[in-house]
Amino acid sequence: MCGATEGGLSLDGVNTKIEAVIQGQVTRSGDPVPNAYVRLLDRTGEFTAEVPTSATGHFRFFAGDGEWTLRTLAPKAEPVDTRVVAAVGSVAEVAVAI
Questions:
Q1: For 5-57, how does the pLDDT look when each residue is reduced to its tens digit (9 = 90+)?
Q2: pTM to 2 decimals?
Q3: β strands within 8-79, DSSP E
Q4: b or e along 58-72 (b: 16 or more beta carbons within 10 Å of the residue's beta carbon)?
């Protein structure tokens, strides 16, 4: 995972012309949620990948083109599902509030 910068994750070293990037931040009452887990599920709901959020609540996936679901799991919170569309050449920024 890349280091966090103000306003989101740094894209230094990421070739966004050939990558489909899904990234964002998990917050609770406006505060970042570290050590939550974000799962990447394909369009049929099958598990594809999982990452923990950083100390600043950020996460990133490199995905294929298409529709995905992010399932966010954190202590003392119900799971949150967020639909997102990934496309090569773009960065899908997702804000998840739990």
A1: 445 677 666 666 777 999 999 999 999 999 999 999 999 999 999 999 999 99
A2: 0.83
A3: 8-9, 20-28, 31-32, 37-41, 47-52, 58-63, 66-73
A4: bbbbebeeeebbbbb
Superfamily for the 4-97 domain: Immunoglobulins (2.60.40.10)
pLDDT recorded at residue 18:
75
Question: Which residue, among 97, 18, 84, has the nearest Cα to 57 in the 3D structure?
Answer: 97
- What is d(CA 51, CA 49) in angstroms, rounded to the nearest whole number? 7
Question: Domains of the chain: which residue ranges?
Answer: 4-97
For residue 88, the one-letter residue type is V
CB 74 within 8 A of CB 36: yes
Which burial class, exposed, middle or buried, applies to 13 when counting CB atoms under 10 A from its CB (0-12, 13-18, 19+)?
exposed
